[in-house]
Amino acid sequence: MARSASRGDLKKIYQYSENITKTRDRAIRLTCIDQNRGVPTDKKRSNRMARLRIRINRLTLKRQDEILKVYSNLIIRRNILSPEPRRSKQTHQTSQASISSLDRQSAVRHESSSPPSSPTLTSPRSTSSSPALQLIVANIDINPDVTKVDMIPNVLNSDNESYDDDDDDNEDDGIVYPDGVTDFRPYKTVARYRKATGKSTNFRSYPILVGEDSLETLILGLEDFAQQHYCDLRFTDEDIQFHRSVYRASCGLVDLGSIHLLATDSLLTATFEFEMDLDYDTDIVSSKENVETFVLDFCQAISNVLSCDINNVRVFTIEKLTKKSRKTRVNFGLTTSEHEQTQQLADQLKIHAQSGFSDEEILKHVKPRDYIYLWKTVLTHLKIRLADLDPQYNFDYRKPGVPDKDTRGGYPYFLPIGWFRHGLNVSTKYGHDRTWIGCVNAPGEWPVAFHGTHKEAVTGIVANGLLPKFTETDVKLDEAIDQIGEEANKAGLYVATHCHGGADLYTTPFTVTTAADRSEQFRIVFQCRVEPKKFTTHTSPVNEGEAWRFVDPNAIRPYGILLKKD
């Protein structure tokens, strides 16, 4: 402990106490419901209870630290740094596996201001390439023939995580539904938002607010957008910085800094299915702790073989192949923030697997074979901090007197007339330099462009997972190469200079039910700033203005979400 001239914050203590009370109430409510039902607790509720207990413990520690800072003028430095990466040849105790996961979650306070170093095929793997990001096993669903594994990045301060326990049971969610409702999903989605912001979930007294300027309508649109692209929408109170959003997306987690990537195939995962001579029941799934240990060791072993970042490797499922023989199939994937690098890693792993992995404790059980890999989009979670949807940055382009055209960064800016912008607070999300988001055409200011939300807008992968040639899907690849050379010979990301006749062509409407017999449809477009001199210009595939083609996803920064009624 070290002396400090500054004191703690009493407001934080009160907030921690309030959060502890709320979390305990949720745990008690779940327990009482199970007792009243008189049925055993299922796996889903057990997982929820475990997460609630972990949250209570963390909040209690944080409150204790803050109390010491307030009343003893002390700074508490807990020795909870992330442990050394796990090695596949180590023997792990069950308790150590659990503690390691908690330590990794608790140790993170702030993300590095510098981008992660890119793993290579020839250099030894750096164990510190992403000090504030660690893939963890968030959920394990064990079934007789297949076990599903959910691996997500643990980012920033996990003590402040707002868990979204999305339960299908109406008895314990505290929601009062309007009469005549048959589709409960929209109300559950808005209820999660209202609970996170301390608002009533009585929809009889307080109906869903429907309109272009309604944040609740936007939340429903984002939920629909996430579901279109096979993601779960999650709310959090983590202050996520966006300068590493693309890297987090390569680990499966999308935030408001990379949300536009859901509508593209720019972050593809090379998926493998390795056959292993391990017994599914006795060697792997005898307990959740064993599954977690196996998964983390498997990822570490693949990382060792490829000399790559362990966060590039994710396990998705573990399957029993036959009931009589010791055969198990592991479905996993490789993803990096650059497609070419992912393909390099996949090709190298394919070569290794042909002759087997005799030197790796876990991988030596892999049957040598000429494995194929398939390309898939495996972005699993859309995580949103509600405070980042900041009304002070809203703008109503529907009101009279708004000009059709302006300039940003020295480029024409065609305003999205007829739309309503829900602003994102990005003022401190990319470091301290805010010139890029300016409105005075200063050097370093970025121009405005628009991005649609329909996944098959320009690029796509075929249903069987085989990667088509870019020329078959990336419609302006050849034209881009003619403009800037081989630098453009990568998968392209497209934005439009116009919202109307441009990005709106590549949107899918979502429906909001306003009454038992009435509904309204809306569309979403992302308003972005884009880095100058990082794109090529094209007259199609848009009807108005230009399409700008990028190969660097970091050169596109969403700063608003546009909403319009059909």
Automatic annotation (TrEMBL):
Region called Disordered, residue ranges: 85-129, 157-176
Superkingdom: Eukaryota
Segments of skewed composition (Polar residues): 91-104
Record's compositionally biased regions (Low complexity): 113-129
Biased composition regions of type Acidic residues, renumbered to the chain: 161-174
Protein name as it appears in the record: Uncharacterized protein
